[in-house]
């Protein structure tokens, strides 16, 4: 059974940092690209960042580039997102998803201004 379980969300003040984790199981982690998405209340889900787990190449949206860093631990089958200099507009439910077509349940990030 494929599982993706996010953790690490929480309430943080603007300018603070959080590190999200996505623990995966049930598939060969380094055979698929994997990434982070987010959905704010009343808005559509949008991509944040993704990583090709074979060669480690990474991609970021403009809002994430320079503040967020995506990484993965292939041995632990886990994806991370280090988020620095958080802004109130980063408040959203953050999901990880793989190109295999599976999504996690999300972890809430709330940034207070």
Description:
This protein has 113 residues and is an all-beta fold. Helices cover 0% and strands 50% of the residues. The protein has strands spanning 3-7, 10-13, 18-25, 34-39, 46-51, 58-60, 68-73, 78-83, 92-98, 107-112. The strands form two sheets. A six-stranded mixed beta sheet has the order 2-10-9-4-5-6, with no helix packed on it. It has a four-stranded antiparallel beta sheet with strand order 1-3-8-7, with no helix packed on it. A hairpin with an 8-residue loop joins strand 9 (92-98) and strand 10 (107-112). The chain is globular. The termini are far apart.
Draw up the topology in text.
Elements lengths: L2 E5 L2 E4 L4 E8 L8 E6 L6 E6 L6 E3 L7 E6 L4 E6 L8 E7 L8 E6 L1
Parallel strand pairs: 2-10
Antiparallel strand pairs: 1-3, 3-8, 4-5, 4-9, 5-6, 7-8, 9-10
Name the features:
113 residues, 4-stranded antiparallel sheet, 10 strands, globular
What separation lies between the terminal Cα atoms? 40 Å
Quick one: biggest sheet?
Answer: 6 strands, mixed
How many β-strands, per DSSP?
10
Computed CA radius of gyration, to the nearest angstrom: 13 Å
Low-pLDDT segments, ≥5 res: none
Report the average pLDDT across residues.
96
Q: Based on helices, strands and strand pairing, what is the structural class? A: mainly beta
**Contiguous helical run count:** 0
Fraction in helix: under 10%
Give the overall silhouette: globular
Instruction: Report the portion of residues in β strands.
Output: over 45%
Order of helices and strands: EEEEEEEEEE
Order of strands side by side in the largest beta sheet? 2-10-9-4-5-6
């Amino acid at each position: 059974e494929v599982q993706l379980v996010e953790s690490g969300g929480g309430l943080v003040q603007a300018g603070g940092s959080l590190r999200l984790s996505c623990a995966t199981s049930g598939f060969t982690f380094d055979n698929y690209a994997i990434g982070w998405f987010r959905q704010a209340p009343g808005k559509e889900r949008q991509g944040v960042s993704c990583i090709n787990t074979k060669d480690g190449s990474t991609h970021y949206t403009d809002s994430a580039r320079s503040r967020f860093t995506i990484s993965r631990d292939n041995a632990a089958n886990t994806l991370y997102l280090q988020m620095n200099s958080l802004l109130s507009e980063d408040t959203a439910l953050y999901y990880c998803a793989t190109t295999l077509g599976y999504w996690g349940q999300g972890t809430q990030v709330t940034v207070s201004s």
